[in-house]
Design brief:
Length: about 475
């Protein structure tokens, strides 16, 4: 069996969507002839969010080496009086902040910490990776970013060891929506680093077609064959036995972080009008944001009439997040409307697909997310500013849910009158399949969707890990497996 060094900043006990891709690759790679060894940061590192429950998902026997990582965010806390803040990253430093000291520190981060606030990890990770190349040794290197510091580590180790290197891009580096406002000289340095990594890696992996096109634009010498698309996905095991339910509520759910620039103002206006026009909406509709959200969004939802409908569970451990998806009637994917949003394919959309719950995406109709929803038949996409279209869609779904709910309640009442010991709560306790099932889930049918289970199954983590393993096999060549 060949050995793979995986350079991953996000690894348990880190939480959030960034940890899932590397963790699931590490879980399934041995099935395809690769034994991973994870090189990551200490468990006490300054992760944006923590999820201690994910430690239980680290496979037994997986080798993990943790190398010291001095970080920018501890300095930021100390100088801005935020020592008590549990988690912090560059996204949570609001662009609306007016305090001169914090503005100066954001400028310093953008000008000096290239490619990101984890750049000081490089010497410690390189030292550890070089040592691991000797004992126990490895046949290839895999790095995943962001943070793109991971790719700089992979690049140095590639040069030192001569081992093939695969660089995995979950976001498009200098073209990412969260890219900081760097001074011109700093951006040029970052762009040169990005260019070097794309050209020196034996293969580069991206999560969507638009990202691949954006990387190829302006790089005529870039080997098209060295750029592979392996999308994010879902793990069937995460959904096994997780029940569907609604508890009598029409819950619309968004999981993950939501920051300034992706706040769905047209959606909120549509919800306000539905509150006035639809009987029972105010009492039975819920808008749930599970994750870190911008202060402006909280302020908008703190005012009537939406205040009574808003739910703020905060960041949830991954298993609880999956359970919330199955308790929802509609899953919200808020992408944005700028040019960069066309290639935005966050990990959450694949877990949305596996949940078997209708998806409403707000984003460009010609983007990767729109094409994915069209191929799978699992939801709809509206332009973020299409208030009337969003309102009409929600009204249709609400009325279909009410009719179904009233029918279920009438049936339960009739059954109870015949057999007092029997009871029920609609689909509140019906266990769902492990992943997409040949029988389309009831709530997708109710919404008028014809989901294609076979298409959705292509995005299982096990199947996608097989694609990565085949790529590693090609990069490592025909040497015998040890």
């Amino acid at each position: 069996m060949r050995r793979l060094l995986m350079v991953l900043y996000y690894f348990p006990p880190s939480g959030g969507p960034g940890v899932q891709r590397g963790l699931k690759f590490a879980r399934y790679l041995p099935e395809f002839g690769w034994r991973p060894h994870v090189l990551t940061v200490p468990a006490t590192s300054d992760f944006p969010v923590r999820d201690e429950t994910l430690l239980a998902e680290v496979p037994d026997g997986l080798a993990v080496t943790r190398a010291r990582c001095p970080e920018f965010y501890g300095l930021y806390r100390a100088l801005t009086g935020q020592r008590g803040v549990a988690s912090l990253d560059i996204e949570s430093m609001s662009r609306a902040e007016r305090r001169p000291a914090r503005r100066a520190l954001r400028w310093l981060r953008a000008a000096a910490f290239i490619p990101d606030g984890r750049v000081a990890w490089i010497p410690f990770a390189v030292r550890a990776g070089t040592r691991l190349s000797e004992t126990p040794g490895y046949d290839a290197i895999f790095s995943s970013g962001p943070p793109f510091t991971c790719h700089l580590i992979g690049r140095v180790l590639r040069r030192r060891t001569g081992k093939p290197w695969v660089a995995d891009y979950r976001d498009p580096w200098t073209q990412a929506p969260f890219y900081p406002r760097r001074p011109g000289f700093a951006r040029r340095i970052d762009e040169r680093l990005e260019e070097a990594c794309l050209r020196e890696a034996d293969a580069s992996v991206v999560v969507g077609g638009e990202m691949a096109r954006s990387f190829r634009e302006g790089r005529p010498g870039l080997d098209a064959g060295a750029l592979e698309v392996i999308p994010n996905g879902y793990d069937e095991a995460d959904f096994a036995g997780v029940p569907f339910g609604d508890a009598g509520l029409f819950r619309m759910t968004h999981t993950g972080s939501l920051f300034l620039g992706r706040i769905p103002h047209a959606l909120f206006s549509a919800l306000e009008r539905l509150t006035r026009e639809e009987p029972e909406w105010a009492g039975r509709a819920r808008l749930c944001f599970a994750g870190r959200v911008d202060r402006e969004l909280r302020a908008r939802l703190a005012a009537p009439p939406l205040a009574a409908q808003a739910e703020w569970p905060g960041y949830l451990p991954h298993a609880e997040s999956v359970a919330l998806l199955r308790r929802s009637q509609l899953l919200l994917l808020l992408i944005g409307s700028d040019a960069q949003s066309r290639g935005m394919l966050t990990g959450k959309i694949y877990e949305y697909l596996a949940a078997g719950v209708p998806i409403l995406a707000l984003g460009p109709r010609d983007g990767d997310a729109a094409r994915l929803l069209e191929r799978t038949g699992a939801g709809w996409i509206h332009e973020p500013e299409d208030e009337q279209g969003i309102r009409d869609r929600l009204r249709t779904l609400w009325r279909a849910w009410r009719a179904s709910r009233e029918g279920a309640e009438a049936g339960a009442a009739a059954m109870a009158s015949r057999a007092p010991e029997a009871g029920g709560d609609g689909d509140a306790s019906r266990a769902g399949p492990a992943g997409p099932d040949a029988a389309m889930p009831e709530r997708l049918e109710r919404a008028g969707l014809s989901a294609r289970a076979g298409e959705i199954a292509r995005y299982s983590r096990r199947a996608l890990t097989g694609e990565l393993a085949r790529l590693l096999d090609r990069c490592a060549g025909g040497r015998d497996r040890g």
